[in-house]
Structure to design on (333 residues):
C-alpha cells in the first residue's frame, strides 16, 4: 500500500488515501515520486469536466521520481535512475504510430490519470517507453511541468519547423504561454505576447517577449494585422479567432494547444485570404520530450514555479483555480 492524495468523488477536495498498485508488468517501471506538477488538466479530471473520470481518482501527470523497480523486459531504465512521466503511461506497441515512435497518436494509449493511479502519490507505474530519463544537472523541482505544459508548446515548434526567422505571437501567458515564450526566445524568434492581464507585462518581458499587447482590445489587435508567421494560443476559453487569423501573414498558422471546449467559429474567407490555416495538438511523443529536455538543459529553460509540500496540495489547487500561481504549481514529498 502507498499513500496518495485522491478525489473520492467529483469536484471534491483531495484526501490522503491508501492505494494498492497492481503487480509490475514486464515492460513497466516503478517510480518513487519526488515531486509532481499540478496542471489544469488534473483539475478537469478531478471535476470530471470531460466525462472521463472514475473515482477514487489519483491525478498528477507531471511526475519526477526515482526508479525503484523494473519489469523483466525493461532495457531503457535501471533502479536509481531519475526519470519523468507525463500525460501517457503506456501504449499498444503494435499500431503504425507506435512502430514509427509517434506514440502519442496511438489510439490505445494509457493515460496517467485516467487509466491508472497518477502521480499525486508516493509511487506510480508506467510503460518504460513513456518514462523519460532526466538529463543530469537539471533542477528537479522545476522539470516536472515541462513534461506536460512544456512539451505541449514545444511540439508545434518542432513539428512546424519554427526557427529564428519566424515572427510569433503567444496568446495567453499562463502556465503554457510563459514556457512558450522562453522556448521561442531561445530559438531566436521575435515574440509578441498577447495577454488580458497587463500587470504581468514586466515579468513577460523579463522572460524574453519582445513586446506585450492586449488580447482583449480590438483596436490593438487590428494594429497587428498581417504581421505574424505563427500564433500559438494557450488559452482554454473561446476567443475571437477571426481577429487572430487577421494578424497572420499569408500562409500563416494559428495553432491551438489550449483545451477550449467550445467550437471554433471562423470565417472561411478569412482562411482563404492568404491561404492561412488552423491546427491543434495535445502533448507530444517521447522522442520529442527527449529533444525538449535536451534543449531545456542546454539553454537552462525552466518554468516559473511555486513549490508546495504534498500536504498543501488542496491549497495549491485552489490557487491554480483562482489563477494566482505564477506560473506553475509543484507539490513535493
Amino acid at each position: 500500500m502507498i499513500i496518495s492524495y485522491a478525489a473520492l468523488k467529483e469536484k471534491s477536495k483531495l484526501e490522503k488515501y491508501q492505494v494498492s498498485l497492481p503487480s509490475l508488468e514486464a515492460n513497466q517501471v516503478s517510480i518513487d515520486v519526488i515531486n509532481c506538477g499540478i496542471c489544469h488538466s488534473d483539475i478537469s479530471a478531478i471535476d470530471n469536466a470531460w466525462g472521463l473520470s472514475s473515482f477514487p481518482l489519483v491525478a498528477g501527470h507531471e511526475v519526477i521520481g526515482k526508479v525503484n523497480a523494473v519489469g523483466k523486459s525493461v532495457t531503457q531504465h535501471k533502479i536509481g535512475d531519475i526519470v519523468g512521466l507525463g500525460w501517457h503511461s503506456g501504449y499498444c506497441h503494435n499500431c503504425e504510430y507506435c512502430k514509427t515512435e509517434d506514440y502519442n497518436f496511438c489510439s490505445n494509449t494509457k493515460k496517467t490519470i485516467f487509466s491508472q493511479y497518477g502521480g499525486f502519490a508516493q509511487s506510480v507505474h508506467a510503460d518504460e517507453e513513456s518514462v523519460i530519463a532526466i538529463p543530469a544537472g537539471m533542477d528537479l523541482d522545476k522539470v516536472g511541468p515541462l513534461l506536460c505544459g512544456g512539451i505541449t508548446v514545444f511540439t508545434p515548434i518542432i513539428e512546424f519547423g519554427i526557427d529564428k526567422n519566424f515572427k510569433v505571437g503567444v496568446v495567453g501567458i499562463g502556465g503554457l504561454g510563459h514556457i512558450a515564450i522562453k522556448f521561442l526566445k531561445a530559438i531566436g524568434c521575435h515574440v509578441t505576447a498577447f495577454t488580458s492581464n497587463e500587470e504581468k507585462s514586466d515579468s513577460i518581458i523579463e522572460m524574453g517577449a519582445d513586446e506585450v499587447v492586449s488580447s482583449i482590445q480590438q483596436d490593438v489587435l487590428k494594429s497587428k494585422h498581417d504581421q505574424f508567421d505563427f500564433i500559438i494560443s494557450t488559452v482554454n476559453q473561446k476567443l475571437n479567432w477571426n481577429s487572430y487569423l487577421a494578424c497572420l501573414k499569408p500562409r500563416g498558422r494559428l495553432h491551438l494547444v489550449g483545451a477550449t471546449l467550445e467550437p471554433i467559429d471562423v470565417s472561411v474567407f478569412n482562411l482563404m485570404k492568404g491561404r492561412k490555416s488552423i491546427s491543434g495538438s495535445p502533448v507530444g511523443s517521447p522522442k520529442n520530450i527527449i529533444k525538449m529536455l535536451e534543449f531545456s538543459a542546454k539553454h537552462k529553460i525552466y518554468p516559473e514555479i511555486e513549490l508546495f509540500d504534498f500536504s498543501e496540495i488542496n491549497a495549491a489547487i485552489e490557487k491554480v483555480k483562482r489563477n494566482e500561481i505564477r506560473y506553475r504549481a509543484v507539490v513535493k514529498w
Summary: Residues 169 and 226 are 12 Å apart (CA to CA). The longest strand covers residues 28-38.
